[in-house]
């Protein structure tokens, strides 16, 4: 049904500019799209009358809350969720061997997959993630189950069946490039049967990363992309040992980025996670191909991979979104990833040459842009989600800072970790949410107009 969302809202206008409206009304039609946006609203009934929306239900926010676009997680490994927080002192390659491959291999069990995938989808929704780009495992039944669960819970999701025919344990890999492609096709077919127009569920071609794919496997996936024009996700330039591995396994290629490019895997629909250690030539190639980057700051710190130079990439006009990279990253929350993006940018600032420091720092507005608009652009969804504009889909979260909210203003108390005293500006409230907020502040979440999560702070 139609709904009108009344109260404060905020979204990112540009990388630098957070647009905040303290008395808005957003009308969402039956299609789940935004049909009108009114600002400076003091009398909602006259707005409803003017729009011809009299009698339509109003979802109202009280004093210290606001509507915000749903978060977009451009990089998350659903089967690694049980390992969130478990990484010790490992770095990428031994982390993969010690924790990641054994956990992922266990998804040959559908019971295991059901248990974990239900939890991670619930958990990301509760943190306001309305779109997630998931890596699953090599297992087709478990990958299809992840799609089923996202479909049932109405999360917008990219579902990637992981392809790898070398490096991982023999019991956890593709037996041939043909096997990788056939298995990927099987999941594409299943996802398409659930959502024929790919309006919420999108298959994504997923070579794990260059070292775990033979050249024949990379080429076969490049051809699959050419045939289907489906998006691609993979990892790039995360840590030094990985760079060495790529140099050894692909000695004739000029760079890591060139490996993907030479196999038909680098294009405008490619999302490259990490991008920590890229040469200027690689940055230029990524830019020339229009490929996108997923910045995973929590993971890059936890696995001591390095600090991605986000400002430099932004200045090169490369599109960047945020990734939680569970479980390289310990938290499934994009708000936490945004917070880490700020902190990592401070480390880049402290480590850079004289006079360059401040330029590296990301602002609150910028990391929130990465978490919403940037992610949407990285995944090719910028016309549909990531902000509040007429014609865009209502993928949104109701953020509450201290007060009860709900339909027609009814609702319980929100007990979040953010203390608002009442004198803060909206920018200050949003900064307090960014640094101290958690899922208790996310009272309700919608995807394409449909309520997909709520706490007791929200009624209706
Ligand atoms: N590189 C290859 N596989 C992975 C993975 O699962 N996580 C991370 N962070 N990097 C990878
Ligand atoms: Fe990853």
Automatic annotation (TrEMBL):
Keyword Plastid assigned: no
Catalytic activity field: guanine + H2O + H(+) = xanthine + NH4(+)
Residues annotated as domain Amidohydrolase-related: 68-452
Swiss-Prot/TrEMBL GO biological process terms: guanine catabolic process
EC number: 3.5.4.3
Enzyme class, broadest EC rank: hydrolase
Cofactor(s) needed by this chain: Zn(2+)
UniProt GO cellular component terms: cytosol
Keyword Metal-binding attributed: yes
Cofactor remark from the record: Binds 1 zinc ion per subunit.
Family designation: Belongs to the metallo-dependent hydrolases superfamily. ATZ/TRZ family.
Name of the protein in its database record: Guanine deaminase
């Amino acid at each position: 049904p139609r709904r009108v969302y009344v109260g404060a809202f905020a979204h990112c206008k540009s990388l630098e500019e957070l647009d905040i409206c303290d008395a808005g009304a957003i009308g969402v039609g039956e299609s789940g799209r935004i049909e009108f946006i009114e600002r400076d609203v003091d009398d909602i009934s006259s707005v409803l009358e003017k729009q011809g929306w009299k009698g339509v239900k109003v979802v109202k926010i009280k004093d210290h809350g606001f509507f915000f676009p749903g978060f977009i997680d451009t990089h998350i490994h659903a089967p690694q969720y049980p390992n969130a927080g478990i990484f010790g002192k490992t770095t990428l390659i031994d982390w993969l061997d010690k924790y990641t491959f054994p956990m992922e291999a266990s998804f040959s069990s559908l019971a295991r997959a059901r248990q974990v995938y239900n939890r991670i989808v619930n958990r990301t929704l509760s943190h306001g993630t309305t779109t997630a780009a998931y890596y699953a495992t090599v297992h087709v039944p478990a990958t299809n189950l992840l799609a089923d669960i996202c479909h049932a819970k109405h999360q917008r999701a990219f579902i990637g069946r992981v392809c790898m025919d070398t490096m991982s344990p023999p019991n956890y890999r593709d037996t041939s490039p043909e096997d990788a492609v056939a298995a990927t096709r099987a999941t594409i077919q299943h996802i398409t049967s659930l959502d024929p127009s790919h309006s919420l569920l999108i298959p994504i071609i997923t070579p794990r990363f260059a070292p775990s794919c033979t050249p024949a496997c990379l080429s076969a996936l490049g051809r699959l992309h050419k045939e289907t024009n489906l998006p691609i996700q993979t990892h790039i330039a995360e840590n030094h040992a990985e760079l060495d591995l790529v140099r050894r396994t692909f000695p004739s290629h000029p760079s890591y980025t060139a490996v993907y490019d030479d196999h038909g895997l680098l294009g405008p629909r490619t999302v490259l996670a990490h991008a920590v250690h890229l040469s200027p030539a690689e940055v230029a190639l990524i830019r020339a191909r229009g490929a996108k980057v997923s910045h995973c700051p929590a993971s890059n710190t936890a696995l001591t991979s390095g600090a991605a130079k986000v400002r430099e990439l932004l200045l090169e006009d490369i599109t960047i979104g945020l990734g939680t990279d569970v479980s390289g990253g310990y938290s499934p929350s994009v708000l936490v990833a945004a917070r880490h993006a700020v902190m990592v940018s401070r480390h880049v600032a402290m480590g850079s040459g004289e006079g360059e420091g401040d330029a590296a720092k990301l602002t609150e507005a910028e990391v929130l842009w990465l978490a919403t608009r940037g992610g949407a652009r990285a995944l090719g969804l910028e016309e549909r989600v990531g902000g509040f504009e007429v014609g865009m889909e209502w993928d949104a979260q109701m953020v509450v800072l201290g007060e009860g909210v709900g339909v027609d203003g009814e609702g319980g108390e929100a007990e979040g970790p953010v203390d608002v005293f009442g004198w803060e500006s909206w920018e200050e409230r949003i900064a307090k949410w960014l640094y101290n907020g958690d899922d208790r502040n996310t009272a309700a979440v919608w995807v394409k107009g449909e309520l997909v999560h709520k706490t007791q702070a929200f009624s209706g």
